[in-house]
Design goal:
Layout: E1 8-18, H1 24-34, E2 38-44, E3 47-55, H2 56-68, E4 75-84, E5 92-94, H3 115-123, H4 164-171, E6 192-195, E7 200-201, H5 204-216, E8 221-224, E9 229-234, H6 238-248, E10 256-259, H7 262-268, H8 273-280, E11 286-290, H9 297-300, E12 305-310, H10 314-322, E13 327-332, H11 344-349, E14 357-361, E15 373-377, E16 380-385, E17 395-396, E18 404-406, E19 416-419, E20 422-425, H12 435-451, E21 458-462, H13 468-474, E22 479-483, H14 485-496, E23 503-513, E24 519-527, E25 532-538, E26 541-542, H15 548-551, H16 553-565, H17 575-578, H18 582-593, E27 600-601, H19 604-614, H20 626-634, E28 646-647, E29 651-653, H21 655-667, H22 671-697, E30 701-705, H23 712-724, E31 728-730, H24 742-755
Parallel strand pairs: 2-5, 8-14, 10-12, 11-15, 18-21, 21-22, 23-30, 25-29, 30-31
Antiparallel strand pairs: 1-3, 1-4, 2-3, 6-7, 6-14, 8-9, 9-13, 10-13, 11-12, 15-16, 17-20, 18-19, 19-20, 23-24, 24-25, 26-27, 28-29
Helix pairs in contact: 14-24, 16-18, 16-19, 16-21, 19-20, 21-22, 22-23
The structure holds zinc ion (2 copies) and fe (iii) ion.
Length: 756
């Protein structure tokens, strides 16, 4: 194996990152063989260690390939190599996992079926059309892992005994299924079962025929997926989709749609190259795309976008081969706000009640993961809901966060735990006010502590005393730190961007507990991790009815009219007021005057609610973000006009904006133009306030966070404008800008206060 042209060198290589349970060791083995090199690879406590020796002319290309041809899922955070003295090794070996201490490496997220497996599906006798095909490069991971280390006995595959052929592949280092823990074939692996009213079908070919017939008849089928059950029906059949919507009580939220292929997606949606790449990534998230042609109305209820995704389970591919539909609603299998169903018995009772058939399989889902949601903003894929394909991959922090538990927010909860300099953000949990979701929260936390071998010494929570996550943190018997909601939003964005210095933080958001006892949500901060100064915010608005105002945008409409015009606003003759009973308007006005149940809010979301109501776009919303979503959906992108807000040293008043906006409504200007002018106004006045802060502080780094930045139009416009004004802009991409990302910020603040 020696090469006459090169002298023998030896390297000791350390690789840190996501390099366990992702086929990294076999990859290195095959690479060493390919280059004729000797040595070994071993899992270390914090990654892998490689010893390589051979001619220098082969070692260099090996090192190149190590970095550039690694399996898609692996992520190399650090790679270091030291030259050592050659030992004259005469083969390459994968050393058995050494006894693991409490140090763990990473756990891989679930991976969409790979192209090689899709080809095997048509060519390998034991796996012809076998829906549980997988290899080291693909298949379930996090969803089936019970404990660490990642071995078959620690997954829900443990009841399945490998047949001799599978075992051979599993043990053959040169095979693509070497050490693929969920390896299976039609002789030895899991199986689907279709539960119909009068029978249970086990034969997979027959299952496909039955499912195909059901879909054509407009029926709803509950289908077991990777991280939970889905509900499925024909996305072009309005009767079916409408029926699904009413039985699921999935109020007002758009349904996700799985498409046959990219070509079909292109037929129904506009698609940029980045969106295409995201749809085809191994994570296979739901990608929010602009509509070109409509599906059934009940899919997205008139919004101009669709949450689209492509097949990621072998089953999806095999299904599309048989059915004539090219687009299926595939929405999470749950009722209302409950967590997605993962148990087969629960599916057969709860989901059977709202579907015509239940398709299960006999491998358990252990860790619940919803489909993740991504939106491409300013050319970057931005995660909106982080779960399947992403969790539990860690975020590397700029400092130590060991032993800290961050409890998250409440409505869109994720928690986070720290180990060394890694932040492990949980999968999407949901609304903790739902009892089942809260149970999922505590269960997922117990599992994270176990899998990652962490016992927290500090808990960190939101300042909101009534958040269930805050109460939970206080009941853990640990030292508790509290972080203001919008400070946490900005810290979260700083952390994922590796920033550790004072920045201008702009948090545009719905709701968050403020330090002055009011509800915050449009905060211009100057902050670092330790502390923040609130420099500016939108003028406080009365929220008549408190939380009710968030559900009923017309209340905010009246509040802002009252603020801008005083008592006389009913005389303006605005069309939206005519849709409301006079007595209700009078009572609400009285409540505002007398300050009865009218908390004050600076929430950007509430301002958007008010404008959605005044323009008649959305008076009543079925979920908390519906009004702003509809307002954006209506917007005329060609309009560059705007209103003038009053930007002062400490607050931004929208009174003049509301007055001009009402003039437009009364003149009959289209809601689309008014929406655009309003969006442009928010962008302009934010810009002006940021500029003032920059001129006073000399800071030129601007960090954007908060749920309002899910608004693609506003987000892109503001970023462009900031960059044009020579600011450095930092936005989210790895964790959500909504409350799903809060826990990371809480962790960062606590970490810095303790360790920084
Ligand atoms: Zn594969
Ligand atoms: Zn087998
Ligand atoms: Fe928030």
């Amino acid at each position: 194996m020696t090469n006459s042209s090169g002298h023998i060198v030896a390297l000791r290589v350390k690789v840190r990152g996501l390099v366990q349970g992702v086929g990294f060791r076999p990859f290195v083995y095959r690479l060493a063989l390919h280059h004729g090199l000797n040595g070994w690879i071993a899992n270390g406590t914090d990654g892998v260690e490689i010893r390589i020796e051979g001619p220098a002319s082969s070692v260099h290309p090996f090192m190149e390939a190590l970095q550039h041809q690694a399996p898609a899922v692996s992520q190399i955070d650090e790679l270091s190599s030291d030259e050592v003295i050659p030992e004259g090794l005469n083969d390459f070996r994968i050393l058995a996992s050494l006894d693991l201490t409490d140090e763990t490496s990473e756990i891989s997220p679930d991976i969409a079926v790979c192209p090689d497996c899709l080809s095997d599906l048509k060519n390998q006798a034991r796996r012809l059309d076998y829906p549980f095909i997988n290899c080291t490069n693909c298949g379930p991971r996090f969803s089936i892992i019970l404990d660490f280390p990642y071995d078959r006995s620690n997954t829900t595959m443990h009841p399945f005994r490998m047949c001799s052929s599978c075992r051979k592949e599993y043990e053959d280092i040169a095979d693509r299924r070497f050490h693929a823990q969920p390896v299976a074939c039609s002789h030895c692996g899991p199986e689907y079962a279709l539960h119909l009213d009068d029978k249970v079908v086990h034969n997979f070919h027959q299952i496909r025929e039955e499912v195909s017939a059901l879909l054509s008849e407009g029926k709803i089928i509950a289908v077991k997926g990777v991280g939970g059950y889905h509900l499925m029906c024909d996305a072009l059949n309005e009767m079916a989709v409408g029926h699904l919507r009413s039985s699921k009580r999935h109020e007002g939220k758009p349904f996700a749609v799985i498409f046959r292929d990219l070509e079909t997606i292109r037929k129904y949606n506009l698609l940029s190259p980045v969106e295409e790449k995201t749809l085809c990534s191994w994570q296979r998230p739901i990608v929010i795309l602009k509509n070109r042609k409509s599906l059934a109305h009940s899919v997205s209820l008139g919004l101009n976008t669709t949450g689209a995704f492509l097949s990621y389970m072998p089953f999806h591919h095999l299904l599309f081969e048989r059915i004539r539909q090219s687009a299926l609603v595939l929405t999470s299998g749950n009722i209302s706000e409950e967590p997605i169903v993962i148990g087969d018995q629960e599916a057969l009772t709860v989901l059977a009640g709202i579907s015509d058939a239940v398709l299960t399989y006999n491998r358990d889902i252990y860790n619940r993961t919803d489909d993740s949601v991504v939106q491409v903003i300013a050319g970057t894929p931005v995660i909106m809901r982080r779960s399947r394909g992403y969790a539990p991959a860690p975020v590397k922090m700029p400092f130590q966060v060991n032993g800290i538990f961050a409890a998250g927010a409440e409505l869109v909860n994720c928690f986070c735990i720290g180990k060394n300099d890694r932040a492990y953000l949980s999968q999407h949990i949901g609304d903790l006010k739902n009892a089942e979701t809260f149970e999922f929260y505590t269960e997922a936390l117990d599992r994270f502590k176990k899998i990652f071998r962490i016992s927290p010494h500090t808990a960190v929570a939101d300042m909101h005393p009534d958040y269930l996550s805050t109460r939970y943190a206080h009941n853990m018997g640990l030292q508790v730190a509290e972080v203001q909601h919008h400070h946490a939003h900005i810290a979260s964005c700083m952390a994922e961007n590796g920033l550790d210095e004072p920045v201008i933080g702009l948090a545009l958001d719905g709701t968050g507990y403020g330090t002055d006892g009011h509800i915050w949500g449009s905060e211009f901060l100057v902050c670092d991790y330790r502390d923040f100064t609130r420099c500016n915010h939108f003028e406080y608005m009365a929220m008549p009815g408190g939380d009710k105002a968030a559900e009923e945008p017309w209340r905010m409409g009246i509040s802002l009219l009252h603020q801008a015009f005083g008592e006389d606003f009913p005389e303006l003759g605005l069309p939206f007021l005519q849709k409301l009973e006079k007595e209700r308007i009078r009572l609400l006005t009285e409540a505002i005057d007398k300050k009865i149940n009218c908390p004050l809010s600076s929430g950007a979301g509430r301002l958007f609610d008010a404008v959605a109501a005044i323009t008649g776009i959305c008076l009543h919303s079925l979920h908390h973000a519906e009004a702003p979503m509809r307002l954006q959906s209506e917007l005329d992108e060609k309009c560059e006009d705007y209103y003038e807000a009053d930007v002062t040293q400490h607050h931004i008043s929208f009174r003049p904006v509301i007055r001009r906006l009402c003039d437009d409504v009364l003149k009959g200007v289209s809601p689309a133009v008014i929406s655009a002018k309003f969006h442009n106004t928010v962008m302009n006045c934010s810009m002006e306030a940021v500029k003032r802060i920059a001129s006073e502080t000399g800071i030129d780094k601007v960090v954007l966070s908060g749920g309002t930045f899910q608004n693609k139009y506003l987000s892109e416009k503001l970023q462009q404008n900031l960059i044009r004004n020579r600011f450095q802009v930092f936005t989210h991409s790895k964790v959500p800008c909504n409350d799903g990302g809060i826990a990371l910020g809480q962790l960062a603040v606590a970490g810095k206060r303790i360790n920084g």
